[in-house]
Write a structure and sequence with these properties.
The protein is an alpha/beta fold and 463 residues long. It is built from 15 helices and 11 strands.
Amino acid sequence: MNNLNKDAQILEEIFNQVQQQGLAYLNTIHERSTTSQQTVAQVTDLSYDGIGTLDTLKYFNERFEPIIVASSGPRYWGFVTGGTTPAAIAGDWLSTIYDQNTQSIKGNGDISAIIELETIQLLLSLFNLPKDFFGGFVTGATLSNFSCLAVARQWIGKQLGKDFSRDGITTGIKVLSATPHSSAIKSLAMLGIGSNNFIAIKVGEGNREAIDITDLTEKIKALNGEPFILISSAGTVNTVDFDDFEAINKLKSEYNFWWHIDAAFGGFAACSPLYKHLVKGWENADSITVDCHKWLNVPYESAVFFVKEKHQRLQVETFQNSNAAYLGDPQENFSYLNFLPENSRRLKALPAWFTLMSYGKTGYKELVEGNISMAHQFADFITNNKNFDLLAPVRLNTVCFTLVNEDLVTDFLNQLNATGKVFMTPTFYNGKKGIRAAFVNWRTSTNDISIATAEMERIVTTL
């Protein structure tokens, strides 16, 4: 009997061991290191017969488990990394077990797209967005920005009487933005528009990263009526700044452009009555990017795109799997295969569905406001300590700061991260070396702030 058949007979034991290991990780996540300096030699030759799942689990625990960091824990504040709620873990495990290729809603096989379409409606409800958006799940903000901007590219072509999806880009595409995220710039490169090929808009005065509306208006007028794509921000990376969506909407009534909003994590401001004013007017955008594996606290890889339903024909023209004759009319015979980049898709909506159903609007209001409260507590420490300076006001959930002696930033951050007690990321803002701490994990508490700040005080006094 081969190992595969043997494993099939002891499936319950395998699942029990994995379950116990998962519980052990989650129950001790506060103590697990947020960084690892260990290295592991690679194995390059595959055995003939294999060793079975239980022995492989043991082998994994000997070699790799010790280097797994608590990136889903309460003091991992780098890269805007979310945690994972209990409900999302349950949904993710079931996604693996059921292993659907999520495409259609009418059968001849899998119909799990019904779950995805419902989850999109739940997310629109969470964000108080209108139901005239169509959405779907992709792997992250990069693919969400890519999907939205791909439809925008096709829209530009149609304004010029061209079909870029079929014939390729035959003319330049104007893109305007002030502080685009690197994933949006990467998307421009992948779409053939060019990562350097965007017109930079000035940012507002007063330590802002948001679009200067006056400069935007002047740049638009200089285009003399030529259609363009505007990439705006609902939460910039360094300082979580928001563009003025109401002002942009007024411009949209006067000029012809595709309005895309990168709201990877800042869009979650809509969950709180205290902060929803930051996204006022975003419902008028043509497309929106939201990252679920950030503030929704579901596992990587999970993000959604929202594109206005009126653009569905453009979306199909962009992504239709045109060589598959059996599809028929993609509008009549719906399949996600014709609306986004991937032809093979995991049921990524299920963890999001589980966590949304489990905790509802109140749960996410409390999660968002709790994280923002933690950010302000951490900022208070920075403000009241003579060794640190805030580089920007705390607008939502991210604290951008530096050391008074800027030359010590790199050494300080290296030592801090090496403690394994907390993890932050370096940045560069307004000509200064800085550090970013992003608060998006449902587990983060005042005690975690105390642990991190104690380490910071200890290290900074030794430099």
